[in-house]
Write a structure and sequence with these properties.
Distance between the termini: 69 Å
Shape: globular
Largest sheet: 15 strands, antiparallel
Structural class: alpha+beta
Low-confidence stretches: 18-22
Mean pLDDT: 90
Number of domains: 1
Helix content: 10-25%
């Protein structure tokens, strides 16, 4: 009986010590958190959106890919020609073109590498304006470097973009189509940060595009699911090798005035493996972290990230540029 009491007492001591250790570990993780996973996620999503924006622009101006009659008005005449790229049309009659980025710096971003586009079932008469058309997007060493600080991300892998609504940016701008709905999916997209650290992203998003006053506005929603969570725009592994999910709380909105890398509103909730707190990200804030209402020629400073453990909350503001 005495032996049992001793064993029981020792068990309580071990359990108590374990709980104290775990609590200290969580407290330290909270204190040392810098929000990097949220900044990485935003950078990848923003640059991915910007690439898809270029894709829509280029295809809408190419009659063989778009499905419109040749000649007439061009999307680029309204939105401007995508900066720093040339289009290789050698595979055009198979529904394939390649965007080659030449290293020109535009809006503080220098882009190199290529993106290859292929309209699936093109030989069967499918064009990008067709309802249900699928566009395969291959990132071939597509690298974006911020000129201000030299930080970079490089994408390699494949995504599919599905045209749920039918129509293209040409129809949106010139033919009065009310909106466009696209779905972007891609698994195991390899991301390299600053030429060294790597991560894996699985992006599942729905985009709704509208047009008004020479501006295209995009509303992004999460359509993925993983580990019992839904409305995920992304999940995978961080640059540190930890599993993460990014769940859309309110749709992420960007427009062609500020750029896809600079959302004007929206919220996402990021969970990182083994952390006792979530990273709550609010887009479209000023330098103090306050939500702002942007005008026609104004853009927000960046995003605010907050994380809470027990009764304490920390935050960090990240600028978009």
């Amino acid at each position: 009986m005495k032996t049992n009491k001793i064993i029981y007492a020792l068990s309580l001591i071990v359990l108590s010590g374990s709980l104290v250790f775990t609590s200290c570990k969580k407290k330290k993780a909270f204190k040392n958190e810098d929000g990097q996973a949220s900044a990485d996620n935003r950078s990848v999503q923003g640059e991915n959106d910007a690439a898809i924006s270029d894709v829509n622009n280029v295809i809408a101006d190419n009659s063989l890919l778009h499905g419109k009659l040749a000649g007439g008005q061009s999307v680029s005449s309204v939105l401007g020609t995508p900066c720093g790229l040339t289009v290789d049309t050698n595979g055009l009659y198979m529904g394939r073109v390649t965007l080659n980025y030449n290293g020109t710096t535009c809006s503080n971003r220098t882009r190199t590498g290529s993106i290859r586009l292929t309209i699936l079932n093109y030989s069967s008469g499918v064009r990008w304006k067709t309802v249900g058309a699928v566009l395969q997007v291959e990132y071939l060493g597509y690298k974006v470097t911020r000129a201000s600080d030299g930080k970079s991300i490089e994408l390699n892998g494949t995504q599919n973009v599905t045209n749920n609504s039918g129509g293209t940016w040409f129809d949106l701008i010139f033919l009065g189509q009310a909106n466009l709905s696209h779905q972007v999916t891609g698994t195991n997209l390899k991301v390299t940060f600053d030429g060294s650290s790597t991560a894996t992203y699985n992006i599942h998003r729905k985009f709704t595009y509208t047009y008004s006053n020479l501006i295209i506005t995009c509303v992004g929603e999460g359509i993925g699911s993983h580990n019992s969570l839904s409305q995920l725009e992304n999940y995978g592994t961080t640059r540190d090798g930890d599993d993460f999910t990014s769940q859309v709380v309110t749709p992420v909105v960007w427009n062609t005035t500020c750029g896809a890398w600079a959302p004007i509103q929206g919220e996402v909730n990021i969970k990182v493996e083994d952390k006792a707190f979530d990273l709550k990200c609010l887009f479209g804030v000023d330098q103090n972290g306050n939500s702002v209402t942007v005008g026609a020629n104004q853009c927000p400073y960046g995003m605010k990230v907050e994380w809470t453990y027990k009764k304490k909350t920390n935050k960090k503001i990240f600028g978009y540029l």
